[in-house]
Amino acid sequence: MSLSRTASVQDWSAKEESMRKAEESSSETPEALSKLYLKLKEAEQNFSELDIRDALIEIGDYFIQQGNCERSLNNYNTAYNKAATTDSKLDITLKIMLVAFKTKDRVLLKKQVEQANTLFDEGGDWEKKNRFKAYEAVYFMMMRNFKQAALNFLDIVATFTSTELISFTVFIQYTIITSIVSLDRATISKKVVNSPEVLSVINEIPVINQLLTGLYKCNYKSFFIALSSVIQIVENDEFISQHSRYWAREMRVVAYSQFLESYRSVTLASMAQNFGVSVNFVDKELCEFIYLGRLACKIDKVNGVIESCRPDTRSSIFNNIVKNGDFLLNRLQKLARVMDV
């Protein structure tokens, strides 16, 4: 532990102890908290570090239930410093992550994710790894790493147990929201659309179901109708609201790309009709995404036609082979010159 970290720990430990002593002697302290303080005091006087750690965790749990995240964090940190095993450290790390999720403290979350991964390299049981996967997925989602979030969610879709963080229905909602914006169609088909776990609750979130089904079945008008409603859900979500505009933009790119893949050329009017929007809207959207390099197509304004500019895969492979061959030949020539010397 660094000197600055040690000083920080000592600061909040001293502050917490001072508040605890004041509360122990106050008649206004809730009975439940007084009992926990008494349990801690007995552990400090008569029992082991393990008992002290457990008492501190209980106090931390009490404060998180009361919504006092700072006091909860103080007690969890003190308990962590008394933890002797990897499993006990992981238990406390997961509790600290819950506090960080509650306070939306991304710095603390990043630190705890890194700490948990280090601890899992040393050990940790399956149950904790399974819970951590869900925590880490939500963290990735908060950091706008939708692909890694989706992969994490899908890894535990059949074993999700982290209901202390989110409900199973919300978990499935996040799984769909992150998957359709970041994963390929084959993966979505296998692991999302046809997932028994997804199917078990999809009817509880009809607008998410409409979004997924509309995109998967190429019913773009239905997809766009659902998208406007899902954007509102994302805008009001506690973990990803700050990424709502980015997510909405990426979803439109996904839908436009999927639609255009089916055509070498298609009229603006036809595309507008498929999406249930005006020609001007499609024209404006495509121009923006083409300019940003997000769509491989061009627009013939005179004839109102969109032309795909898909790269020739075989030509690309051939060019890579030639490029790598030239690189290898140059290395061999240099080696030959060295050997001649």
Q: Tags for this entry?
A:
three-stranded antiparallel beta sheet, Serine Threonine Protein Phosphatase 5, Tetratricopeptide repeat, extended, mainly alpha, single chain, 3 strands, 341 residues
Would you write up a description of this structure?
This protein is mainly α and 341 residues long. The chain has a domain at 1-124: Alpha Horseshoe (Serine Threonine Protein Phosphatase 5, Tetratricopeptide repeat). It is built from 17 helices and three strands. It has helices at residues 3-24, 31-46, 49-65, 69-82, 86-103, 106-122, 126-142, 146-155, 168-182, 185-193, 196-201, 206-216, 220-235, 244-260, 268-275, 279-291, 313-340; strands spanning 265-267, 297-300, 305-308. The chain has a three-stranded antiparallel sheet with strand order 1-3-2. It starts with a helix and ends with a helix.
How are the strands of the largest sheet arranged? 1-3-2
User: What is the SS-derived class?
Assistant: mainly alpha
Query: Spans of 5+ residues with little confidence (pLDDT < 50)?
Result: 1-10
What series of H and E elements makes up the topology?
HHHHHHHHHHHHHHEHHEEH
GO biological process, one term: proteasome-mediated ubiquitin-dependent protein catabolic process
Protein name: PCI domain-containing protein
Domain PCI: 145-313
Biased composition (Polar residues): 1-11
